[in-house]
Structure formats: structure tokens, C-alpha cells
Amino acid sequence: xxxxxxxxxxxxxxxxxxxxxxxxxxxxxxxxxxxxxxxxxxxxxxxxxxxxxxxxxxxxxxxxxxxxxxxxxxxxxxxxxxxxxxxxxxxxxxxxxxxxxxxxxxxxxxxxxxxxxxxxxxxxxxxxxxxxxxxxxxxxxx
Length: 142
Known about the structure:
Blueprint: H1 2-33, E1 40-44, H2 46-59, H3 62-72, H4 77-108, E2 112-113, E3 119-120, E4 125-130, H5 135-141
């Protein structure tokens, strides 16, 4: 009974991690869709954008493998690791593609970078783009 409780606890942890990473992936894909519609767009750095997809792809295979372990008792560590690494690779490719398409759409839509709103720290970076240049002054005082 205690062993099943531990497995369910880890399963809930992995579901939470996958949900959190999925939210980051959704946020980037939603930002790609609103380019040209919203006058102000805040874009995270390349590594921040891509890491959500990498982590999502890495942890997603652990959920069905955990279900398999809980209900049948079968453990497949080599297969699980291979699936996790393959998911991370696919996530990196998808994240790179979406980040590149976001930056291309920003250039095509004639957005201007608002350098006063740029954030650069050790763990996070972002750039803010505006459509009319006067919006940069507006976001500065907001």
C-alpha cells in the first residue's frame, strides 16, 4: 500500500511538471498567433522559450510509463529513458521552430524593439516590441 502511495505521489508530481511546462509551451505558441494583432508584445529569450518544450517532451513519456508501473508492476527503465530523451529532442526542435517563426513574424509585422523595457538577468531575459513607436513611451509609464 505504501509503495502504491509513493508511485501515485510521483505520478502527481510528473503531471504537475508536465502541466507547468505545457503552460509555457502554450504561452509561446499563443504569442506567435497574436503577432500583428496586439500593439505590445513581450518575448522571452530563446533558451526560456525552447526550454519549456524540451522539459515538456522530456517529462511527458514518464506519465504513461508510471501508469504502466502502477497498474501492472512492469518497469521499463531503458525504454523510459529513450522515450524521455527522444521527447526532449523533438521538443527542442519544435521550440526552436516556434521561436524562430515568432521572431520572423515580429520582423515582418514591422514591430520596433522598445529598449527601455528590455530585461536581462542571469536566469531570465526578455524583449518588448511595439507597433507604433509612441507605444514605447506609454509602456514605460504604465
